[in-house]
Specification:
By secondary structure, this protein is of the alpha+beta class. The chain is 23% helix and 13% strand. One of its GO terms (molecular function) is DNA-directed DNA polymerase activity.
Length: 78
């Protein structure tokens, strides 16, 4: 990955770290302490891995691909 994605890599590491247990909070993660519920870990992906971005039907023609290749560089806030 180019150095221009360094900030994205830090953001992903903080995202993951906030969803892992810590000694400061007994039997809780920082996410759980803040939101009151356990975090969903099913969406974890490897930073820089191959991803596919879905293309809306209104933006493609009949024989165009339904998705485009992309690189996973972060998670959405929502």
């Amino acid at each position: 990955m180019p150095n221009s994605f360094c900030a994205d890599a830090v953001t992903v590491s903080v995202y993951i770290k906030n969803r892992l247990p810590t000694r400061a909070l007994v039997e809780k993660t920082p996410f759980e302490a803040w939101h009151g519920s356990k975090p969903d870990l099913s969406n974890f992906r490897i930073f820089g891995s191959l991803a596919y971005a879905w293309t809306s039907p209104s933006l493609r023609k009949k024989l165009d691909d339904h998705a485009k290749k992309a690189v996973m560089i972060g998670y959405t806030d929502t």
